[in-house]
Structures are given as structure tokens and as C-alpha cells.
Fold this sequence. Notes:
Helices cover about 40% and strands about 15% of the residues. It has about 500 residues and is an alpha/beta fold. Helix 6 (about 175-185) packs parallel to helix 7, helix 16 crosses helix 17 (about 425-440) and helix 16 packs parallel to helix 19. Strand 5, helix 5 and strand 6 (about 150-155) form a beta-alpha-beta unit.
Amino acid sequence: MERVINNGTVKFYNGKQIPLEMHKVRIVQSLNLVPVERRLEAIKTAGYNTFLLGTEDIFLDMLTDSGTNAMSDNQVSKMFVADDAYAGSQSFKKLEQSVKDVFGKKYTLPVHQGRAAENILSKAFIKEGSFIPMNYHFTTTLAHIEINGGKIAELFTPEAMRIKSSDPFKGNIDPARLEAFINEHGTENIPFIRMEASTNLIGGQPFSLKNMKEIRKIADKYGLILILDASLIGENAYFIINREKEYLGKSLQSVLLEMCDLSDIVYFSARKVTSSRGGAICTNRDDLYSKMKHLVPLYEGFLTYGGISIREIEAMAQGLMETVDPDVVSQSPLFIDYMVKELDKLGIPVIMPGGALGCHVDATQFVSHVPQSQYQAASLVSAFFIASGIRGMERGTMSSTRDEEGNDIFSDLELMRLALPRRVFTLSQVEYTIDRLNWLYHNRNLIGGLRFIEEPPVLRFFTGKLEPLSDWPETLAEAYKKEFGNSR
């Protein structure tokens, strides 16, 4: 019998409602909270880019949920029974069966992670002059599309860019804008429509099933295929069940199957979906499968391992089955919702309603005195590491790119993302995060801007280095020590 998701919180006798962990911790890793002086030195050495920090200097790692979700006991145990073969592995057959059960797709092409799937899709479908309409891009998606000669068109609704909103589905595509775009550019120049569940760069915001059905109808009208980036599909389904009245009380499995049935191709990063490694491209269409399958051995590995170990194939197969478990899927959104609401009570600007993946702080309001040209989100992320030892991620103009004249293409939103991977952090650690962010907000005038000193031509946020435009990091560290007494 399928379990149905409830709101996932427990009401206490004193009236307070908090998310309750539906798991117990059996294996732990020690954490280290280094002194603020060491945090300052570490962020300097990293070029004010949190990707370049070493974990020995990090207290809570909220950089990403990619590959950092807690694996279940069943996932780990499955890795010991892997059928380790280059071709024809029985472990791959288990993955195929999980994809059929959870996504309803008969063909599975394994890849080493989500961006590898994007490479295959781009090579197979995109040509010079292609346009890809979507709800919103992801950094690696944009890079692969552009490298292959395509351009993106983000056809979001007006609510998508509002920081604080009551709209439960800010990840929707605007159907009217989509149809107008198709008529303007012609179906011959649009290889597919892409929907991302849930939109990473605008706060992990989901789309509704009603909207997906509308987009499917338009795709059918013009003979276009619909591709679903399902890297956060479990969370998107969770939001549908809790926010879309037609689906209240439905099971995760039924909603997941309906979402995938509306899609011609489903691809995902297993680093997000199943908390292991790898990824896959899935379809029911023979013609689409045939167009892609020869590219997997070329770029990834044979069709039954796709560039990752067979042990990870086993973990993926088990992890996909756990995607229909409400206790697994709901934990991260519940913690995010709690954190977002507590920060909002303190007046700290955050994306609302809470979405998937993490809590997203609006750097534009937080450091309004810093110009966008000085990388507001990157400055905030660096400042927060100094003030807390917590590693967040910049999701703003540093994660964007430059135009042909060399000017920054300013991001629509300047966000500090604090990822909350599934079943990794405790509520007390979330409370610590809220407390240190509250202190930083009250001292936000101490934060200054940054500029690039090393800038790669592609995906510069991964390995680029910056420097401060003043001595504000030192001033911030001194203020922290004065406030908290000891240097931690």
C-alpha cells in the first residue's frame, strides 16, 4: 500500500510546529569549526570562491545537494552485490526496472552525471541556430546548448522573479509566451521544449502539473518534443501534492508517473535524485533512443554502465525506488521551509515560498549598497563563510557569463544558496545557520564588493578567483570577534 505525504511537521504541546526527522543517524563524520582568523585566511586563499575552499576549513557544507545527500542503508548494502561487468551487467537491468517503475520509461541510457546527459542531448538534437524554450536555464545546460550553436529562451511567468510571493508554482512556463515564441521562430528551429523540475537558479521553484499539461498540449500542436530535467523531480512532485488542490492526497509514485508520461525524454542527475552518482536519459520512443544511444559509448562508456561503476548503478537503482518514499523526499523541503520562514520573521530577504534544494537568500536586498557589477551574491557568500564557517554557493552574476563585448550579463536574481541535502543536517545546525545569518544581516554594511582576478572563459564560477575592493573582509572578521568574544 502506498503511503501518502502529509505536511511532515509535528505540533508540540507548546503549539510550535517543527519538521521531524524520520530517520536515525548510525554513522557520523566529525565536523570542525575553525577560528574566524583561519576562515578569513581560507577564503582569501580560495580567491573568494567557495568552490575552492578545502573541507578542512568548512563547518557546515551547504554548497550543493549534488552527490552530498545521505545514502540509505539499503543503497549502501546494494553496492556489495553489484554484478561488476563491462557489458550486460545484471545490475543495469535492475536500474532499467527502477526507471520503468518510477518514471514509466522503457529505455535507459546511463551517464556519469546530469551534465553528461545534457551533452548527449545537445549533440543529438541541437544545431547552429537552434532555440530552446524553457522555464529557466541551469548553468551547465546553458553551456552545452551554446557550445552546440543553440540559444535559450526563458519563458517564465512574472511571479518567477518576485522574491516574496504567494505563488506556489513560480517555475511554470508561460503558455502564451511559449506559443508566441514558437510562431515567431518556427518549429524547424526548435528541437525541443525543456522543463526543469525544480528551477535551480531561481530558488528551486516547482511547476504545476496543470502547467505541464498545458505545455504538453502546445508541444503536440506544433509537433515538438518535451524534455524534462528530472534532477529534482521528487521534490517537484512533493510540492504538487501539497500545493495543487487537484493532487492533494495523491501518492508520490502516481504523480511522478504522470509527470514523466507527459515527457518524451526524461533525464536526471543521480547525484540529486538518488543521492549516489551517475545519471540517465530515459524515453519510451524508439526513434529518440536510436538518435542518442550511439553517443553514450563515444562520450561515456558502454550502454550498461555509462561511465560510472556498477556499484553506483546498484545504488542508483535502489535510490530511484526510494524517490517514491515520502519520508525520504519530504525531509529537505520541510527543513528548507522551516529555515525560510524563520529568516523571514527576522526580516532577512529570502525566496518565498520555500522551494527545493536549499534556502535562497536575496543578495540584492541584503547588500543593497554593493553594486551588482561587484558581484553581490559572491560577496555575501564570502562574508557568510567568514561569519559562520558555512559554505554556501553564489547563484548570481558570477554564475552568469559575458556578452560579445566582454560585459557582464547581469543575472536576473542575485542569490546566496544554502543547500540542505536530504537527511544530512540536524535542526540545531539549521538554527546555528539562522543565528549567524541574523548577525551578518545586522552588520551587512560591513560587506563590500569583489572583482575577478582570474576568470575562465566557461563556467567561471567553478574555478575563477576574485579579490575584495577594500579591506572589508578583515573589518568583518574583527567585528565578529568583538561580538562573540572567542574567535570561533
